[in-house]
Structure formats: structure tokens, C-alpha cells
């Protein structure tokens, strides 16, 4: 029971890993793989003629499900962060191209007007890009809080079932 609990603690601590790369997702997948190995070992150890699922089976299965949900959340957060970064890079490229066009227009026609709206548009685009990153961060924090609450409730209910 202790190794699986440590895997759960490692999963909670994985929220401290920087989410920009795939390190966090790889780490969580490794935890899920380790728990699935424990489930296979447990399947061989437990009697197959039992009428009820043993508490240790429920314990392993619920932790497996919790880490699976945590992986889905990590994928969602990475997707939102990538969407914000992609949008920011596309918009930055467009803004730079617009500014280059304005400069070339100035060189060709001295009477042309400056693109006064470019800084305002760039600020709006940066806010939109930061919006996706902010949404991803909010989802990550809310999920962490709900995840910890779920773990505490599950372990306390399992403790009460075990002691009775």
C-alpha cells in the first residue's frame, strides 16, 4: 500500500513541475504505468473466488483512476498553453510584418500615415494570448485543490471502511 500511496504523493507533487515541456506528462505516464504493474501483481495475489472486491483492490483502482484523470488534466492544460503560445507567435509575426510594411511605405511615399493602431492591436493580441495561459493556470490550480480534497476524502472513507 505504501508504494502506491507514494506514487499518489508524487502525482500531487508533479503539479510543481514546469508545464511547458512534456516532462510533466511523461512523469505522470510513468506513474500510471507503475501503478498498472502493481495492479497486475495484485491480480495474481488476490483470490479469484472472492464475492466482494477487496479494499486493497479498490484502493489501487481508485488511485489508478485519479492519476488517469490527472493525466487528462495535464493534457488539457498543455493544449491551452500551446494554443496561447501558438496564437502569440502567429500574432507577433503578423505584427512584425505589418510594421515592416509601414516602414517600406514610409520610404516609398513620404506622405503616407503611420500605423497608429499597431501598438493597441498588439496589446489586445497579447492579452488574448495571456488569456489562454491564464485559463490554463486557473484550471491547473482548481484541479489541484479538488484533487487534494478528493484524495483526503477517499483515504478517510477507506480508513473508516478498513477499521470497521
Task: Report on this structure.
There is one protein chain. By secondary structure, this protein is mainly alpha-helical. Helices cover 82% and strands 0% of the residues. α1 (2-13) runs parallel beside α3 (55-108) and α2 (23-45) runs antiparallel to α3 (55-108). It starts with a helix and ends with a helix. Mean pLDDT is 80; it is low at 109-117.
Secondary structure: elements and pairs:
Layout: H1 2-13, H2 23-45, H3 55-108, H4 118-163
Helix pairs in contact: 1-2, 1-3, 2-3, 3-4
Largest sheet: none
Identify the quaternary structure here: single chain
Number of strands: 0
| Residue fraction in strands | under 5%
InterPro entries: Neur_channel, Neuro-gated_channel_TM_sf, Neuro_actylchol_rec, Neurotrans-gated_channel_TM
Domain Neurotransmitter-gated ion-channel transmembrane: 2-91
Keywords: Membrane, Transmembrane, Transmembrane helix
Pfam family, one: Neur_chan_memb
